[in-house]
Amino acid sequence: MSGHVSPISLYITIFMALMVLTGLTVFAAFIDLGQFNFLVAMIIAAFKAALVIWYFMHVKYASKLTKLTVATGLFFLAILLGLFLVDYGSKAFTQLPPFLS
Amino acid sequence: MSNAVVHADGHGHAHATHHSALQHHFDTMAQQKEAAVVGMWVFLVTEILFFGGLFAAYMVYRIWYFDAFAEASRSLSLFWGGLNTAVLIGSSLTMAMAVRSAQTNKRTATVNWLVLTMILGAVFLGVKVIEYADKFEHHHVPGYNFQWASHEAPAAGAPSTLLGAGEHAPATEGAAAAEGHRELSLNADQLQLTTQIYFSLYFTMTGLHALHMIVGIGIMLVITWMAWKGKFDDQYYTPVEMAGLYWHFVDIVWIFLFPLLYLVERHV
Amino acid sequence: MLDKLKIPDHHYLHDGHSLRSWLLTKDHKRIAIMYLMSISVMFFIGGLFAVGIRFELATPQGDFVTADTYNKFFTMHGVIMVFFFLIPSIPAVLGNFLIPPMIGAKDLAFPRINLLSLYIYWIGGIFTLYAMISGGVDTGWTFYTPYSATGSNTNVVPTAIGIFIAGFSSILTGLNFIVTIHRMRAPGMTWFRLPLFVWAHYATSLVQVLGTPVIAITIVMLAVERGLGFGIFDPARGGDPVLFQHLFWFYSHPAVYIMILPALGVMSELISTFSRKTVFGYSFVAFSSLAIAVFGFIVWAHHMFVAGISTYAAMVFSFLSFSVAIPSAVKMFNWTATLYKGAISFETPMLYAYGFMGLFAIGGLTGLFLATLGLDVHMHDTYFVVAHFHYIMVGGAIMSYMGGLHFWWPKMTGRMYSEFFSRVSAIMVFVGFNITFFPQFVVGYLGMPRRYHSYPDEMQVLNVMSSAGATVLGLGYVLPVIYFLWSLKYGQVAGPNPWGASGLEWQTQSPPLTENFLKVPIVDREPYDYEHLVAKEKHLV
């Protein structure tokens, strides 16, 4: 009834992991990875967010319905960003190279 | 399927003892708590899409005006941004500890962790004030006084025609997309305009985030008072948990804002 | 038998008579009644602007009002009808009243949040009415930038804030429904025993919860641009006005499904009840609601084919737009199959249902014209579009709302209205609607653009027809107000189940108790088991 009680050590571990990942994302930003800088930053941020959702927000121990709700939100966020890219991405994609235009 | 379970134990309620916090239209505390958790998550889903709209706008302009975003981003202080990230992650830890204390019937500890969370939230907002003040000083607040001064002073007069007119003429469709392309270097006029877009998004994003934090601290004041009055026990700590979910969500938004705003292109 | 029926002594309307007992109520039924009154007021205010529009368009010259005033008329008509009538109409009134009794619950999961949503709706409404009285707004209900950001000097921000606030009311209603439908069902009320009305509201709630926040953030961005001088959408400041349209339609296209999905849910109830048959293909109808809700989110840019999106994106969105027709057609065909060999009767709610089927079919099919990329370039922003969405919103959503209101009125008040006058009103609405909007398809195809207060002389005949039809339509909407109010005092007592319907809400008394049921019902029957009911009736006779 009272829900799952996580051990304090787990919370400390997650906190440490989040701090390390923050350091890592700053560190990665100073290396020239070209287009991959953005990707790396977003993967790290997504991983950090997942840790917070899964452990701090107790989704790991929550009902299937709660998990489904979280997934729905992310799915529709993906639709929003993805279909924006269909327009704005294809604008860049359909543009003729400078020597042709 | 879990509904059947909830109702199955719900209908023995004639001989079960009722918790004082059980509302009349629920059968059991478990059903009530589950409804609250799902309801809160549905609310957080709306928050995801609320910030999602901003992220979409950010994405579009970052693709178009990458150089301006990179340059404007470098004007932000990595020290303050990094510090705030650490402070907010720390406040998530203290919030998680507050919920844990409520779950385990530790009244004083709950109150202390909540107060600590609020203090960390206030530290974050204080740092934000320092950063905003810096933007005011450097004319980096969008509007009529906006000035991007790192390059030569922008020429007075009408804004660049390239930016104003290019994107709607059918013949040059797609031209706008190329403006932010790395090979094109922006002139001072264009830089003035496009860095302003960056700062418009910066202030809207961080401003709404800060507003959420202020609301969160307000909620926590109430929760702390309730905890102090001993309203919670291991059977009923839903408000603490809901406040926690909200606070963690605000933390997650910052986890994305930090690399998006502060780390656009730092290696140059 | 009829004279033995009497209104029960205890019911939700008698649970306190003071104003306070209404304003601080947590009873979903009382909140629904207050919503009913509020949206009716909004409907008639919005209707007044429509009267102004049709009055102006009766002559080709712009002689009744100036172009600026005309702009304000159609803007306020759109804003009030869309955000303050259509979006809350069926969910906040019928859904609020009926979902708990339909699933065997005592109340919604969060009664206080339900009341809060009503107050938020009122605050949003007051903001918008204030903006209207103090000068109005002339951007069109779409608030397109850069006009709304820098061009218009009317009350854009107060109106937008009103919409922003009302959006939260919509979100909270949707949130409440989702949790209620998941967590508050009576024992035995499995997902596939839910009335299709509840499925439709579940799908609607998804759209409300997922779409509304995006319009909220769009309004915030518009407000900071207009109020604080930020550069986001204004091309003079490097912004992209098309971005505004993307964000706007990400909500506002799904918002169309907030209006029509509950209407589709009402239809399933009406058609099965009045043909005394199970809904044909229950699970298909149920899942088609969810499909419409999801597909609704991936088609929005068909509003923007000529706005400067890329050709490839336009092709993708045109293709995706056709996909919405599939679940909509599934519903239409299944209702037709439900009618087949049914014992059909022609009470007022069913008249509205028939009207709905015809008008929704026309509205839906003309939607396919507009989703066709090449044709839309010709039709875009003409009266063809205006006619199309009025066939969906008025011919679809409002017909269904009226049908639902007539169907559940005896449940809400315990009394019947005049069957004769209600049939007259249903026929007037149907005839008046067609005379109003069918000519607009023609005049639009001939090239009359929307949002102008004058037009070429040769289009006058069609426009006069339209204005004349609007008069009939308007009278058709006023008549129910009279006989509904009359019925409150003089109407025949209806009894718990005047239509012999199968839903759980008809198992309790009319009007229901505050807690809906004397004891929690246990559901052991399939939905719409009219075969069972009909057999029982025959046995009794």
Topology:
The complex is a heterotrimer of chains A (101), B (268) and C (541).
Chain A: H1 8-29, H2 36-56, H3 64-93
Chain B: H1 2-10, H2 29-64, H3 66-74, H4 78-103, H5 107-137, H6 161-165, H7 175-179, H8 188-228, H9 238-262
Helix pairs in contact in B: 2-3, 2-8, 2-9, 3-8, 4-5, 4-9, 5-8, 8-9
Chain C: H1 19-23, H2 28-56, H3 67-103, H4 111-133, H5 147-151, H6 156-183, H7 196-228, H8 241-275, H9 282-295, H10 311-323, H11 325-339, H12 348-371, H13 373-379, H14 383-413, H15 419-445, H16 460-490, H17 530-540
Strand content of chain C: under 5%
Radius of gyration of chain C: 23 Å
CATH superfamily of chain C: Cytochrome c oxidase-like, subunit I domain
What can be said about the biggest beta sheet of chain A? none
**Which outline of chain A best applies?**
flat
What is the count of β-strands of chain A? 0
Total number of helices of chain A: 3
What's the CATH class label of chain C?
Mainly Alpha
- Indicate the structural class of chain C: mainly alpha
Tag the structure with descriptive keywords.
heterotrimer; A: mainly alpha; 2 domains; disordered C terminus; C: 541 residues; mainly alpha; Cytochrome C Oxidase, Chain A; 0% strand
Plain-language structure description:
The complex is a heterotrimer of chains A (101), B (268) and C (541). Helices cover 72% and strands 0% of the residues of chain A. Chain A has 3 helices and no strands. The longest helix of chain A has 30 residues. The relative contact order of chain A is 0.08. In chain B, helix 2 packs antiparallel against helix 8 and helix 2 runs parallel beside helix 9. At the A-B interface, helix 1, helix 2 and helix 3 of A face helix 2, helix 4, helix 7 and helix 9 of B.
Short description:
With 101 residues, chain A is mainly alpha-helical.
